[in-house]
Specification:
Elements lengths: L15 E3 L5 H14 L8 E3 H11 L6 H17 L1
Antiparallel strand pairs: 1-2
Amino acid sequence: MIQGINYVGDFRGRNEIKRNGLTKDWRYILHVFSLSLLHRKGGYDGLNLEWSAGMLKLFTNKPFNIYGLIFYCMVDNVDRTMM
C-alpha cells in the first residue's frame, strides 16, 4: 500500500501504479495529471513510479522538483531518438 493515497496493488511486475487500485478521488487526480503532463498517446490507466511520486508530492503539498523530472524525461526521449 502506498501511504497517502491508499493504493492496493503490486509494483514488482511493472513498477507502476494502476488506476483501478486507487480510490475514486485519486483516480480522477491521476487521470488529470497524466493527461496534462505526460507525453503519451494512449494507455492512461497506469503511471510509473517517478511520476506517481511527483503526483503524490505535488498534491499533498510536499516539496518536489517537477522541472527536474520533466527535464529528465526530455533527455531520456532525446537519448531514445538518437539510438
